Each structure stands twice: as structure tokens, then as C-alpha cells.
User: Fold these one by one.
Assistant:
Number 1:
Amino acid sequence: MSQTLNLTLKVWRQEGPDADGSFETYKAKNIPDDASFLEMLDVVNEDLIDNGRTPIEFPHDCREGICGTCGVMINGRAHGQEKGTATCQLHMRKFSDGDTIVIEPWRAAAFPVVKDLVVDRSPLDKIIEAGGYVTAPTGTAADANDTRIPKEAADSSMDAAACIGCGACVAACPNSAAQLFTSAKLWHLNSLPQGQPERYKRTEAMVETMEQFFGACTNHGECYEACPKEITLDFIGYMNRDYIKSKVKNRKLAGQQS
Amino acid sequence: MNKRKAVNLTSTVSPQKSGHKPLRETKKELPFPLNLYQSAVGKKWVMAITGLMLVGFVIGHMVGNLKMYLGVLEHDGSAAYDMDIYAEFLRNLLVPILPEGVFLWILRGGLLTAVILHIHSFYSLTRLNIASGRSYESKQDWLASNFASRSMRYSGIIVLAYIIFHILDLTVGATSDEFVHGAVQSNVVNSLSNPVIAGFYIVANILLCVHIFHGIFSVFQSLGVNNPNINRMKRGIATAVSGLILVGNVSFPVAILAGAVEYNECDPKLSVAEQVEENCVNSSGHDSDSDDDSHSESEGY
Ligand code: HEM
Ligand code: FES
């Protein structure tokens, strides 16, 4: 049986990037406990609109944990208290009647607030852009099973590819480092035969772009706890290894890529 | 039917300028291997390697200090503190390939370089991290980080202050009139019999071990050593090494305050003959009648 909850929300409201923000308190009444967190915000927004007030701007799109658009700090935790779920997959039954919920946008120098809970995460796109292309054969498409890949490598690559780029790792990191994101994107390709030709060039470029925007890892491990896809910290180790290799072997200059 | 008042539902904000512009530009690349130190990942390697060198030194230093428990031994026909014999041994490392004291200075040079690089990489990465962060207005709930990992910069700074004091106190002898170069055992006991110095020593060593705990845990990942067999043992290795150093180092001031370390009650400036005359048995060691000053600079306890 579904029940309803009455909650107190403390939500960060900020008019625009240069405006000062502050927490506003709202009552969320009669929230069905099978609503998702975002649906709860929808209900609150309906109410605000009915009263002629500006609704809370929050990031969302797919609402099924695959696009990486949603993401806010909920009671001091990125994506809330449930492990391995995005904000859109967090259900109100995980809260109790009468709870106070504090909602704040991601914070990092590279993620300026656009409005309320929405931040600009485009530096993550810059890192992806820096990764460039993978060399692919031209002509007719090769058979998918032409390239043999060990099961372990395929699994590892798939684990890395699960990253939805939501930025929770940066948001949870005391240093605002983007190591987990960048290393997942790198390992996605670096672990596969198709990713080998540009492996070291890609590693160098993506790490250096990352460092233009984000802090440096000090191995706290908060990113892993926050990650809705439970991307493993191991990828950060692989990235550290590949980055030094890319420098030591200076493959770029020698014209040999792998 | 629609009682809703008109509200502007669209965001009034145009895309951000600051988000697209790097917070910092990449500098012109220096030749290998200097280019490693231009990136944060490379700096972290330097921090990890120099950190490991320092951990190696701290372990060696602790083991060396255990000699203070052995008290007086026979050495070259006369009685001497084992500690002082050890200090002399350090000065005589690689003699006669190198003149006395030279290899010790080479080791010190290496350590000093490691300390400088460790602190410089710490300084520049910490500045980077402070510049990259924005603190939350609400309380952040930590799940994985711990006291050690969050206090690295503070434990590091206190350890640095301690290292400087320690060198002035027991290597240079700047903090006490009773200090005698080469008389290591009595210098250590004189210094650590002071409860204030002993207290500082204990606090600093606890912080050092807190620092080393996260340091060792961190070092594998920083160096890209990632393997399930090792990952499983990381926490254990960090606990064991930092625990060992903690027990060893904290035992010294405790034992000295408890009077459990043998030491010379005489003024160490007295010659052996004078000491015998004053009936305070243990001499501080080496043949004090030789008047070459080769023992005059002594450390290495
Ligand atoms: C005997 C003295 C010291 C030892 C044995 C030592 C050891 C270590 C080790 C092994 C690491 C791990 C490197 C890594 O993360 O990969 C480390 C990290 C670090 N050290 Fe030290 N260190 C010492 C002194 C200092 C001093 C004097 C400072 C600062 C003034 C300092 C600041 C740091 C910082 C900030 C880190 C980064 C830790 C992190 O990743 O969160 N250390 N140290
Ligand atoms: S809205 Fe797409 S992941 Fe949450």
C-alpha cells in the first residue's frame, strides 16, 4: 500500500550565475511514497506555480538513470543516500514522514550554478572532446566478431562504459577532482583492441584537459561512494599508469602510438 | 479552468561563459622528464615516490633509535653507549672509499631533496585543489574518506614543524647548552626528559603515523599499482607500517620519562677521567682524549 509523506525541504535557490543564492524552506505535502525524488520536486513545483511563484529549476531528462542529467546533493550526499542510484532513481519510500531534506546543487569551481539546482557541467564535455577519435577501418563494416577480445577485457570496458557523466564524482570529491569520470572514459577505450592506436595520445590529452578544470585526486574514495553506476576506483590507478607511460615513452613524438 | 497565474517557466539564463573556459591554461611543455612535474598526475607520482623514501628513512631511523635501549657496551676496549657507536658507524659509512661523513651527507642530501619535492608537490597540488573547489553550504556527509585522508595537509605541516625542531634540537644542538656533538645518548635523554619536548614529540609522531597511514594507502593508486591481490592488502599494509612506526617512536619519550633508558648523569662535557673522578660511571663513549674534531658533527641516531 502506498502511503503519503509530508516533508520539509530546504532548497538552494539562485536566480542566475552571478546572483547570490540561499536556502528556501518549502513544505512538500502528500507526497506518494512511490514517487521518485524528481516527481516529488514536480509536485512541489506544481504547488509553487499554482501560487504564482517561480518553480525550482532542477536538472533532469531520462528519469531512468541512463542520461546523467539529474544530480543534486541530498542531505550532503551526491544523488542521496542510496548507493548505486541516480537522483531520478531515488524513491520517496526511502524517506520517512516528517523528514527535512536539504537539497543543494553540485559545487565545484568548474561547475558554476546556472540557476537553482542546475549547474553547467560542460567541462566534462571538454574532456571527452580532448579524447578525439578511434581509428576505424574504412570500407564495408567488419564483422563484429572479427576482433577477438578477452571476456575480462570486454567486461572491464563495459564497467567503465557504464559512466553516465553525471558529475557526482566531482561533486562528492573534497578536491573537486574529475579522476573517476576521466579514468572511466579512458578505460572504456584503453582496455579494448579498438582503443589501442590512440591509447597514449588520448590519455595524455584527456588528463591534461581534466587538469585545466578540476582538482587533483588524494585518494579519499568519496567518488566511488557517490557514483550511481558504481564505477570502480581501479580505473584511476590505470589512468595514473597510462599517463606516466604516455610521457615516458613519448609516443607522440616518435610517431608510434601504442 | 486554468487558475494558474502566468509564470516564466523557461530559464532566463544564457549558457555559462565560465564553464567553457579552462580555469587554468596548460603551460608550454618542458622536455622529459621535467614535463612529468607539470601535471598533477605526475606531481602525485613525485609525491608518492618521495613519500616512500621518507617512510623508508623513518623506519630506519626508528630501528636505529632502538639502540638506546641497549645502554652501554664494550667498544674498542672502552665502554660506550651503543647509540653513540651507531652514530659513529653512520659517519663512517663507506669509509675508506669516501672520507668520513661524506656518505652521510650524500644520504642527507637525498633526504632533503625528497622533503623539498614532497612539500613542493604538496603545496602546488593543494593550491590546485583549493582553487578547484567550492564548499557546500549544507553539511557534506563523508562516506569513504577518513580523518587521516582529510587531515593530510595539516598533519603534514605539523610534521614539517616537528622535523625542523627535531634537527635543531638533536642534530644541531641549538636548543640546549648541555648538547655535546657525538654524545647522542645523553643528548636524547636530556632533551626528552623535558615533558614539554616529550609531549610535542609524542603528538608529532602520532600525526606522522596518521599521515603515513593514508600515505601508504594512497601510494599504490598514485603509482598506478592496481591489482586485486594488492588492493585487498592495502589497508592492512598501511595499518601495519604506521602502527609499527607509532609503537617504536612513541616508546622512546615514554621510556625516557619513565627512567627506563640508561644514561649518563655526568655533565657530558667532562672528560672520562673527570667522570670517573666524579663517580658517575658511564662515559659517553669515544676516546675523548683524542683532540681531532672528527666527532664534532654527529647525528644519525
Ligand atoms: C617524514 C615525513 C613524511 C613522510 C614519511 C611522508 C609520507 C607520505 C606518503 C607516503 C605519502 C603518499 C603519497 C601519495 O599519496 O601517493 C604522502 C602524501 C602526502 N604528504 Fe607526506 N610525508 C611526510 C612529510 C610531509 C610533510 C612535511 C608534508 C607537508 C608539509 C606532507 C604533505 C603530504 C600531503 C598533503 C600528501 C598527500 C596525501 C593525499 O594523497 O591525500 N608530507 N606523504
Ligand atoms: S534523469 Fe537521466 S539519469 Fe537521472
Note: The beta strands of chain A are 4-13, 22-32, 73-74, 77-78, 100-104, 113-115, 118-119.
Number 2:
Amino acid sequence: MAEVTFRSVSKQYDGDGPKAVDSLDLDIKDGEFMVLVGPSGCGKSTALRMIAGLEEVTDGELLIGDRLVNDVPPGDRDIAMVFQNYALYPHMTVRENISFALEVAKVKKAEIKARTEEAAEMLGLMDYLDRLPKALSGGQRQRVAMGRAIVRSPQVFLMDEPLSNLDAKLRVQMRSEIIQIQRRLDTTMVYVTHDQIEAMTMGHRVAVMRLGVLQQVADPQELYQRPANLFVAAFIGSPAMNLINVTLGGTAERPTASFAGHTLAIDPRAVERYPQVADRIGSSVVLGLRPEHFSIEGDFDLPADQTVEFEIDLAEAMGAEAHLHITLDVPVVELDGAPVIAEDGDDVSTSTTSVIARIDGIHFVRSGEVVKLGVKTHLAHFFDLDTGLPLN
Amino acid sequence: MLLPDDVDVSDESLPLFTFPDSSTRFALVDNDISVAEFRPLDDIDRIIRLDVSSGDKTGDVVTIDGDEEDVFAIEVDGTTIEAYRSRLTSGGRFVSLDDPADERVELVNLVEPVQQFGPRLENFEEVLIDKNLGRSLTNTVLVTIVVVSGQIVTSILGGYAFARIKFKGRGPLFLLYLGSVMVPFVVLIIPLFQLMLQVGWLDNLSALIIPFMFSAYGTFLMRQFFISIPVEIEEAALLDNASRWKILWRIMVPLARPAIATLATFGFLYAWNSFFWPLVIINSGNPDGRVLSLALSTLGGRSSTDLNLVFAGAMIAMTPPILVFLFAQRYFVENSASSGLK
Ligand SMILES: Nc1ncnc2c1ncn2[C@@H]1O[C@H](COP(=O)(O)OP(=O)(O)O)[C@@H](O)[C@H]1O
Ligand SMILES: [Mg+2]
């Protein structure tokens, strides 16, 4: 077991190309479950592969424990990695796959057998020890890959999107199994995923990355409640935080936010958290409201100036809750000239902003209806339009 | 196959024939003896064939079609007649099976072989031992095994290096190597011959083995296959602290079985059937240096009468390639390399 430390680590694949990882500073504690999360291509795998020694560090220092490992070959780092495609040895049985590293290390036969079976036992693979990988289901292969890592009792576990090839149900199950195994072995874990739900549910701390740059490292709660910038605010949470271009008005004591013909009073408690709001009266900022910050008439006890009437484009009843989709006639919030989170299949329109409100499932709302929603503005977030930094 | 029926006179088995005038079977005891054709003076159209040594000149001379011919006294069926000798040729001496004293000389192609339909395993023995095909077979097996194993080993090493080890000039070197596949072998024969001459390997099996242990085609084949193996498998092995050498032999080579089987089969067929280069390198007077293809061509030359032996030799030469192909073909379709991934 060991800590992993990045000191201004950068990685450039081509001499003149962009930096896949840009001056990363990150301290991963001994025994910690650290999740690296971010959209595809943000450099999480690259960061992980540098820990493994599969990619060279272009600049900066990488330490495992107290040891500088920049030039240590992968095999000498005492780490184990689970790959996205599992990378099992296809011609070896489950037993041989799991014990290969011990064999290479010339561990005694009896000990190999004992440790292999202990790992297999932990993962429920005892009945499959003599099978080849091709005779296993996806979930079983995933377990073999984990077994191969566990059996070595390494200093650090590395996992690169290990669950992305499983179906949704299995994913949830494996998620909790991985959490349990890590807790039981108490080994430092660096876990890469692009799925923020995985990140939030699994990590002791979560490191959010964007375009090779670390955005924020914090525990999931903090990440959710105090995002360090517009990107983290938009990336963490599902459905995502609603980001709306608003103009601040009113007074420093009781400011208002105007957008698309609506005006919303801002609770002073929000101004306490975001004091710069008081200085920005009259200018445009980004208002961040999570879907659960809305509630429907009857469910709230809010002053009248914190309610707005919206026309509902689409009401999605999901049982326990309902999602109300609203389109606002304000340009979408952009970061570096593009919508903050640009995902495939997203609406390309940037002249309107879509908002999702989450309400209790007992309410029946039809698409097309106009309803009055209350907004808990004391929980609202405010960001600078240009820099994306919070106004605190 | 139609084969002459045989009879054992002493230890040897001899082919049997019948003459048009009787149903008695005769054994061909002597092939290739000198035969004289006599024509009786009183019946010039009749031909009597006898051993060259038979007949005595009477000293008389007769003129036939303007040529002067010596008159011989020959014995036919117990009577002596006068005849002239129209031609010397070669034929066989036949002995009757019923009456060992009944001996005839005749051209082999004018008598009817006694035919029997069925396998005759002695052909194999004869061709292997009497015709020295056994030695050629040993040579071919030796050459083929060494060439094929050499090709496999060098192709694996080269292919792996070109696929996965980064070194300066890898790309151009690979192109150069691959380019050599485009040079037809005929162009290389003379330079290669000169090289062998300088090294002193003329008429030596080394010349059939060493230049062929390296295969640009095989290296290319192995490289392509290694490239197609997901790099993560190798990375996983690296993290398991396996050395390059161990990764190659424990992970990559077992996964490359289909490619190796393909390479081995083609290498085998090429080495087994190669004819022209052995013909150039091995002296025709050195039967101990012959490979199977050379021995077969000698056996089946233009004047060959031993078609049975040619067929037996051909069978011997054909069987191993067929077996190899049957054995290797299941690997051609199998591709296990990707089954370890999701
Ligand atoms: N082997 C490579 N050669 C060149 N560029 C690469 C290589 N691997 C990744 N990249 C680039 O580096 C960036 C980060 O990639 P990666 O770390 O794989 O992202 P992620 O895992 O977060 O999706 C991407 O822009 C990707 O195109
Ligand atoms: Mg990745």
C-alpha cells in the first residue's frame, strides 16, 4: 500500500501536440479510493497509464510511496491494473490467468495455489477455474481481471473504466463489489470512469478533469455542493445542473435574476455564499440551479417573488419523481465557445436554453401545461460568464 | 494400376510376359541385352531375334537391296538355317515358367506383359532401397524440418520486433525487408550460386538449408498477426513483471498459433517441393546428396520403364504434404486471439 503523488506532471504524446495531461498536481492517499472522472479524451486514461508506467512522463514528478517512479519500468512498480477490455490471456485458463504474475515472480507452487484460490473465492470464481476466458460471460471475465489484480497484493490498484462493457444491472452490482473489495483489502485505488454516477458513488474523493487539466478534487458531497467552476457544476449531477444566462437586478440586499421575461428574487443566503453577486448588479452572470431546486405549487413555502410560471414542453413521469422539460428563450451558456457539456446526440441549438425541473412523482403534469414552479434560490450557484469561476 | 505379375526366380522377383504364339508365361530374366535380328535367306520378311553371340558367319556374302551382308548359320527350333543379320538392337531374355530350357530373346515391347490388378507394396521397398530414394527422403525430411523450424523462429523474432519494439529506422527497414519479397527467385539464382561457391557449400545440403531459414514473407505474416493482438494483453503481462522474452514465448507465440500454422504449412510445402535450386546446387553424380524431388525426376526420366516405381516414389513424396495440410487446416480457420477480450 502506498500513496501516489503527481507533482506538476504533464504528458505530451507528440512533441508539438497538445498536452494530454497538463501540470497535474494530485495527492492520492494511502488506502484511498480515488476516482478520475471527465468526458472522453480528457486525459484520465493517460494519467492512469503514467502511474502504471505504460506511458512516459513528459514533465514533472510521479511518486509511488516515497519513490520517484518516472523511470521505473511497469513491472517494478508493484501495481496491478484492470483494463477496460479486461485483456485476459485468451489461451490460459482462469487459474492460469490469475496465477501468471505469481508464476513470473517464482512464488512457490503451494503458495500460488493457495493465493489463486483465495482470490477466486473472494470473487466467486471457484467453479470456473479451469475454463478459458472465451467460455465466460462478460461479468465473469471482469472478475477474472480483478482476480488477476487482487492476487498480487499490489501497492496500488488501477482500473480503467472496468465496468463500461457490462450491462446496467451488472454494472451496479460490480460497483458495490469493487467498493467492498477495496474496503476489505484497504489498498490504494485509482479508478477511471467517464460516468459521474460511478464517480460519485464509488470514490472517497473524486478528481474531475477537462482537456488534460484537473478542475477540482474533493469528496462527492463537496463536489456537488461547491463546484469549483462552471464545468464541474455542469458535469456532476444527473440530470445536470441547469445553467442559465441571467441579468442581475434589484438591490445588493435583495438581488433579482432576470431571464426570458421572468424575474426571480434571490435569497440573501445565496448572496452570503456568493458575495460577488452584490457587486454584479446590472450585469450578466450564470445562474446555476439543480433540478431539485425547483418545486411545484403546493410543495413549497416560498415567497411569491421566488416563483415563476413556465410552460412545460415535456413532462416525464418516472414514478417517484417527474422531470419537467422547459425551454427558455436565452442563449445557452458557453465555455470556451461551446456548450459547457457537449455530448453526442445533444440538441445543437445554442439560441435557447433547456431546463429540467425535478418534482415529486405524485403530481400530475401534462406536456404543454403552464405551471407555477417555486425556486429555492438560497441553494443557487453563481458563476462568471467569461471565466466560469464561482462568484464567491 | 496395371502391373506385370511377378515370379520369384532365385530371390529376385521378375516381371512375367506372354508371347503371341502360346499362353505359356515367360519371366524376363535379363533386360537390356544386345539382340541381333536375323532374316532367313529363303524368307526375307521373317525376323528371328537371337542373342548377339549366337550364329556363326559362314563366310558367304549376299546382296540385299544393293548392300553386301554376311551370311550367318543360325539354329532355329533345332534346325540350322542361313540368314543375314539385318539389325542390332537391345531386348530381353525370357525363360518359360513351364520349361526352364525354353529360353527366348525378344524386344520387350513386342511381348505382352501378364497383367494383374492390385497393390504391390514391394514397389515401395524397391524404390526406397534399390533406387536410393530412402536416402533422398532422409535428406528432404532433414532439409524441410530445419528450414521450417528456422523460418518459424526467425519470423517470430523478426515479426515481433517489427510489430512491438520501437527502434530507429524500423519503418524503412521493414519496407526494405518486405521489398525483398518482390524479387523473383530466378533473379537470385546466379548470385546465390556464387555465394555458395565462395562459402564452399556447392553440392552440400547446407546450401539447401541455410539461405532458406529466413523468410521475409514469414516475418511479414508474423508481424501482421502480432499487431492484431490487442496491446493491452501485452501491457497486462508487462505489469505482471514478465520480461519481453517471456511475453513473447508465453503470451504472443501461443496466441499466434494460427499464423504459425500457416507459415509452417507454406514453408513446408515450399521446402518439400523445391526442385530447381537443389538441381542447381547438387551434382547429378551425387545420389547421396539428392532430395526427393531430384530423385523423382531421375526416376521418372524420359526413358523410364519403371512406371510402377515412379508412382511409388510419387506416393511417398505426396503423402507428407497431404498429411501436413490436413493437420494444419484447422488452425487456418481458428483465431483465438480476440477471445480474451470482452
Ligand atoms: N497513444 C496516443 N498517441 C497520441 N495521442 C493519444 C494517445 N493516447 C491518447 N491520446 C490523446 O490524449 C488525449 C487523452 O486521451 P485519454 O487519456 O485516452 O483520454 P480519456 O481516457 O480521458 O478518454 C486524447 O486527446 C487522445 O486523443
Ligand atoms: Mg480512456
Note: The longest strand of chain A covers residues 19-28.
Number 3:
Amino acid sequence: MSDPILTLSGVSKSFPGVRALHDISLSLQPGRVTAVIGENGAGKSTIVKILTGIYRPDAGEIRVGGEQKHFSSPRDAWAAGIAAIHQETVMFDELSVAENIFTGHMPTGSTRLVDWAEMRKKSAELLKRIDAPIPPEFKLKRLSVAQKHLVEIARALSHEARVVIMDEPTAALSANEIDDLFRIVEQLKAEGRAIVFISHKFDEIFRIADDFVCLRDGEKVGEGPISSVTEAQLVRMMVGRPVDQVFPKRDVPIGEVVLSVKNLSNATEYADVSFDLRRGEILGLYGLVGAGRTEAMQGLFGITPVTRGTVSLDGRQLSIHSPSDAIAAGISYVPEDRQDQGAILSLGIRENVTLANLSKYVRGLFLSRPAEQEATRSLGRRLAVKAANWEQRLGELSGGNQQKVVIAKWLATRPKVIVLDEPTKGIDVGSKAAVHDFIGELAQDGLAVVLISSELPEVMGLADRVIVMKEGRIVDEFKRGAWSAEQIVGAATGAAKEAA
Amino acid sequence: MNAPMQPPESRYAVLDAAPRRARDILLRWEVILVILLVATIVVNTIVSPYFLDVFNLADATFNFSEKAIIALGMALLILVRQIDLSVAAIVALAAMGIGYAAEAGFGPAGLFATGIGIGILCGVFNGFLVTYAGLPSIVVTIGTMSLFRGITQVILGDQAKTKYPAEFLELGQSYFIKMKESGVSWLFIPPIPLSFLIFLVLTAIFGIVLHKTATGRKLFAIGSNPVAARFSGIAVDRLTFLLFVVSGMLCGLAAALLTARLGSMRSNIAIGWELDIVTMVILGGVSIAGGVGSILGVFLAVLTLGLVTFGMSLNNIPGQVVSVYIGLLLIAVIAIPRIADKLGLRTGR
Ligand SMILES: Nc1ncnc2c1ncn2[C@@H]1O[C@H](COP(=O)(O)OP(=O)(O)OP(=O)(O)O)[C@@H](O)[C@H]1O
Ligand SMILES: [Mg+2]
């Protein structure tokens, strides 16, 4: 084995009430992909932040090419050849794609002014290299979550880094985009770079990784070549005991039509979306990123105006102009964009969990702290939220734990119809099963569920029926039992010929 | 098949609340303000023998109570990332309305109602432009600041309104509790002017609404992340609108108290108040970035500023020095927590 590009030894980091990392050592080899795995809150992102100069370790050392380094800012890390795609994107909505890619290291001419033409040219090249046809001059806010992710990848590539770290890069991507991403990873590998890959999806890990490092509660509990372990062994290592990864789908009688959507359209993103949803039914909504699923459901929920179409609930036509109208009518929507739309990072866990149905916690005139605590505790435990305390600011939790809190907030409300948009994004295996079970329980209680997910196994495991959207339109529908993964993906990509 | 599977219990032990740590408590904004307030009182007492006289202190409250009443509404607006810079202009417009109403023979109740009514209308106008027209509140209220003040100036010119019913004027000078009336010599009840009493009552109401009710929680959510608040079904626009109306209403109330106290009004009444009021709110620890603040903080800031101003005037310190001092105070108080963060004294970084 050649000399490692980067080594960590004896690294520890604590936050008040949590030991995030304890005595971690690892080394990264050129041309190899190291998967870092562990449950939500195990310390994966903390390692990334230490490697990129965002946090300073309490103890331990970092060596790059044999030389000891102290990073006091992300700039130092770039200079040492380390670039990362962070789990929580830090980008500028009002700036262009090109500016976002080159933040902090914009190309300058001899005048020391920004060379805009050069910057746009390089951006276009980078985006082309990763097959992302996004015009460099677009403002970032016009892009979807997945497209933003691609811009982040381009940004990491722009540093020409020797170590590229990807913290859950696939969380927002669907199958095809993941293939594209893996092509890029292979390319980076061939160029002799070291790659750190963090993901909760084992199929990806086994596909792309050469080595693994497993963390548990901030300690390293295993490492080695990925070929030496099985998925079950990894899960066991992560969790510390064997776990049921799937709960059997609950047998729920399907009732009468609750929600009826007809010809829902807006100007550009989706057209003539029609479907009926029945009591107790879980309807999967599958498609590629950009197929218009999120946009259509946000139209339904009153976030964005619709130009045409009707929505009826229990046979009564609704007029929805805002989310509060939708919620009053009995329709809830759990957004996919956790950072901006789902979580209130500066409020505490308790305040987030109770926010979507505050009236339930009012006793007399006032909010009852014990009632709120009670609900937070029981939902938080059920979803295995890891935190120092329930009053902790949401922004201090790990990404997956933030997502669990957001889910808890919505599952605490009991509407008639709930639309879940990528609900298990970033959640570890064990907790994912808990969320799935929770969704099943809601259906059993008579709730009608629309599940948008880019993860086919999730859709196929939970849904009674799947409708597939492509380019803003519904192109196909499959019933449970009468489907195959190939058929569904085929319909989404348009690869297969239209089913009769 | 339907047997409910129990998910394994979470293996994480999560506390209900963070353990209290002395230095976190000591660096709380409110504690800093209390220290400041006590320091102000101690220094002033040493410097001037007249400072701690209850009658003097009670009189001092006249000078800030009206502004302080408006500051309560401003605190909520700033908390949700809005601002109302037209407050002083609303006071002027409402005070003019009260002047005309008094000439038309209205009694005290009618005059208060007139002021409050005009304030509400102004608030509705601001709120409408901000929420339904979707304009930034700083722009809207800079506009309406000129508009409302301008209307007052156009109508009044350099005329003054000075005719008010006696009962109304009496309210402006009145103490809710007079020292002698308590009768019992050992029972010490300080004299409390009506405007200060109204401020106290409103402080209690605002504090309870903001910190104990669902509505208050919603305001914190809006201030922290308006997008996520909207997705959570909070009627962001409706609440914002309501806050502008409340702000206008408090301006109308303050206008009535102010005219009753002064017994006359001109078009330049309450000029420059908006900055004093914003100062009270910021010193009170309400973050301009939204989502952070407490009514207790605003209350303490109001008292501190009021007593500093009063103390300095007792010692014949000129107004310019007072404003230099207040400027320094504001910067210092805002800087302390940031510097403490930088030094790593507080947790969470
Ligand atoms: N700024 C912070 N303040 C307090 N605690 C923190 C902070 N950042 C991280 N932590 C804690 O450190 C632990 C590790 O977090 P980290 O983000 O590294 O987890 P992770 O392995 O990336 O999890 P996930 O899979 O959910 O992304 C968590 O318990 C988290 O709550
Ligand atoms: Mg993470």
C-alpha cells in the first residue's frame, strides 16, 4: 500500500453534554474510497468538519502528506488540498452558480479584479464534467435541491483537491443522478485522489467504497476493506446489536376516496396532475429529481400558486391559497428541504416538535410545558433522537437527528392527508425502520399518505400504489404486487416503452 | 400479521433540560441589564442625594413611559424581523386628531378612543403594505413616517392645539396611587403615575402573551425562520399584519397620554422618538436578525435608559453627553455576549 495522503491520529472533540469524537485514528490512501459509517450522531460530520477547519479538535493531530497541519479555517484546509461537500449546504441563494462554485477563490486577472469570463468558462467546464447542464449565470435560488447539490460537487472539484470528502452526497438524489455521481467518484479515484464517502445507504457503500471506517457514539468500532464484511455485520457494528431493518408492511383496509386531485397545473413545472387518494392508502410518488413531484405537492399545499386544476377533500372542493388553509382543511406537507423549510434551527427540539399543532398543548390560555415535554420525549424516543437534552437548539444536532425532529413534528399532527417529501433523507437504518413503522401506523389510523421518495426500496416497501411522474406529468401507475423495480425506473426515465 | 411491533427503545439518555451552569446564567442578557440597572442606581445615588427620592423617581417615569409603551409593540415587530419607523409620526397624527376632537367637545374617553382609532388605522395601512403588497417594512415605514408627519404639518402648519377638557389634562398629570392616600404609615406604596402604571400592565400582558401562549411561540418561529414557520401552518402574514396594528394602537394610546401630559401639541410632537424606541428594544436584547428577545429585557432596558437620562439631568449633564453615554452603553452591551462567545466563555461553540 502506498503512503497515505492524510492521517488522523488520536482525534477527540466534545460539545457540552456530548462526546462527539473520542480518540479517532484513520488514514486515507490515494485512489481509494473510504466509507465512514455510523448511526445518526455517531460523529461522521464532526470528522468532516475537523478535516475542513470548521471545528478545532480538542486533542489529536492531522497529517497531510506526512506533515502535521493545524487548520483554523476552511481556507487552510483548501490550501492543504482538502475539499468537502457538506451535509448542510452552505451556499448563497442570491449569487450565480459560477460565483457559488468559486466563492473564496475566484479567478483574478493581472488587475486583481474578478475575471468573470474565466470564472464562467471554468464553471461551465466543471459542470460539464459532472454532466450537470446548469447555466453558470443562473442564480442559485432558481435551482432545485438536487441541482444545488451538483453545484456543490462542482465547487469541491474546483479546488483540485487531493482529498475529496462527500458527506451524504446522495441523500437528495435519485437513482440516475447517483449513477452520475458514482461515475465522477470513479474518475476522481482514477486520478489518484483519496475520497471519503458518507452515506446511510448500504447498496451505495458496497458499490463504491474500497475501505470502511465504522463509528459508534464517537468511537471507532471497526475498519478494514469493505470486501471483508457483509451488510449485516456492518449494521451490527454500527448499532451494537442486530436490528430489524424492515418492519413488515401493515395490512390496512383501504377505504373511500379522501383526496381527489384533478388536472393540477402550473405555468412551467407540472401539468394535469390527477389522482385519487383513499383512506388508509399510501401512495408512492416516484420520479427523477426535477420531475415536478415536489412542485406539484407544494402547489397542492398552497406554497406556490397553481394555474389550473381542482383539489377536493371528502368530496368538497377546496380553495387553498396558503399552507395554513391547507392545514385547516386537513392536509399536511412535510418538506424535503430540511434546512430552509422544515427545521427551525435556532429554536429548541421541544419548540420544533410542537410547532405544527401548538393548539394541542394549550391548557386554558397558556402553553403547557409539561404537555410539550411529554410529547417531545415520547416522539423523540420513538425515533431514537440523539441529543444532550430536549431543550437543545436544533442546529446543534447531527443532520439525521434534525430530520428525525422534523418528522416527529409532522407525525405529531394528525391530519386527514399527509404528504411526506423524502421523509427519511439522512436517517440511519434503525431509525428509518422506526419512521416506516410510524407511517404504517398513521395509515392504519385511517390517514391517507402521499410518499415522495427517490429511494425505490422505500417506495416499494411502503406504498400500496405508485404513480410515476416524468417531466411534470404522470406517466404511469403501478399497483402493489404487480410491479418491478425495472418497470418503475423505466417509466421514470422513459427508457421502457409506455406500458399498455 | 397485524401484531404491532414495538420499535426498540432508544438507547440514548436525553435530559429534559441542560444542566445549569453559573457562567451561562451570568452572561444572560437580562442579568447584564440588571447589573447595569443596579450600577446606574448606585452611581446616581452617590452623586446626587435627590436621586432616590420616590417622588423624583415617580416624576422621572413620566419622561419615558409613553415611549416605553410603544417599545413593547416595536419589540414584537423586531422579533419577527420587521420594524416600524413611523411610530413617532403616528403619535403626531393621532395627537392632532385628539386636538380636533377636543375642540369638538369630546370627553376623556372619546379622546383616548380617537387617538387609539387613528393609531389603528395607521397600523392597518402599514400592515397592509407590508403583508399584502409584500414590501419590506423598513421601506414602507420610512415612507409612512414622512407621510403621516407630512399630513400633520400640512393640516396644522405652525398652529398649536391647546384646548382640552380639564378631566383629560388631569389624567396626564395624575398618579394612580398617591403617597398620602395609603394612610398607613408603615405601608410603603410608592406613587405611581398613570402612564407608568399602564406601561407596567401592558408589560405584564405582552410578557405573558410572548412567553406563555401559542401566539408568542409562533412569533419566535416566524422570527427564526419565516419559511419554515409558513410550512408549519403559521399564518405569517396575518400575524405580521396584526403586529403592525398593535404597534399603531399603542402609538395612539401614547399620543393620548402625551397630549394629556403636555396640554398642547404641535406638528413636531414626539419628533425623533422612533430612534429612542428602537434603542430601548435593541438594548433590551431583541435581535435585529429576528427570533431572539424577551419582554423582561425590554422592560429592564427601558428602566435603565430612563434612570440614566433622569440621573444625568439631575446633575445638569447636557443632553449631548447623555446621548454619547447611551450610544456607548448600547455598543458595550451588544458587544459583551459576542466577546464572551469569542473567548469561549459561553457554551455551544
Ligand atoms: N455545534 C454543536 N454543538 C453541540 N453538539 C454538537 C454540535 N455539532 C455536533 N454535535 C453533536 O455531536 C454529535 C455528532 O454529530 P455529527 O454531526 O458528527 O453526527 P453524524 O455522524 O454526522 O450524524 P448524521 O448521520 O445524523 O449526519 C451529535 O451528538 C451532535 O449532537
Ligand atoms: Mg452528519
Note: The longest strand of chain A covers residues 18-28.
